[in-house]
Amino acid sequence: MSSTRNSRSRLLTAAATVALAVFSLTACSDGTGVADEGKAARSSSEDAGAAAFSKSAAHAPVAKDSATAKKTVTCEGSRTKTVAAPLTRPVNHLLLTVTNTGSDTCYLYGYPAVRFGEAQSVPPVIEDSQPQAVVTLEPGQSGYASVNLSAADGSAGHGRTEKSLAVYFQGRSGEGSVGKGATPALPAEGVYIDDSLKVTYWQQSMDDAITW
Fold this sequence. Notes:
Blueprint: H1 2-28, H2 33-59, H3 66-69, E1 72-74, E2 80-87, E3 93-100, E4 105-116, E5 135-137, E6 142-148, E7 160-162, E8 165-170, E9 177-182, E10 191-193, E11 198-199, H4 206-209
Parallel strand pairs: 1-4
Antiparallel strand pairs: 2-3, 3-6, 4-5, 4-8, 6-11, 7-10, 8-9
């Protein structure tokens, strides 16, 4: 009986060993093994996640570049309105008011190049009137400059009355005019000018413009 049980035990052990060998061969017959089945599952999961991310990215809102959302340009005649108004104080002065009529912020560089009548040259600028920063006009805002028309004591020569005015705008380089000029109306009787004619730099406030 003992011999029979021992033989049966050996047969069962051998059968179990053969079964394990067959299972191992089956799992590895495709060169991937059991571990590869887990890898394939993870790969499918990763592919699905990537696809979902791609779809959500395609529908995500695109943020606007703040640098392009708001432009800054040079103030000139096509973007502004210019008004010329004689002042009683200081005497013999003309105030130029430039208002930004566009939708973008603009810069008033330098000083106005003004021409009265048929003048072939523009008057000089008062150097001491140069502001610390370039005048910046948001839409609807105004910048200012004053024109010293004539000497208060009548001492300057070549006095005359002019009835037309053209205003030109400088670019960032300060060399020559850019864009379109402006032709603000003068009083019907005109304005009196002489060789002391000069202008201020553009100013951010009216008070600064009429100081000179």
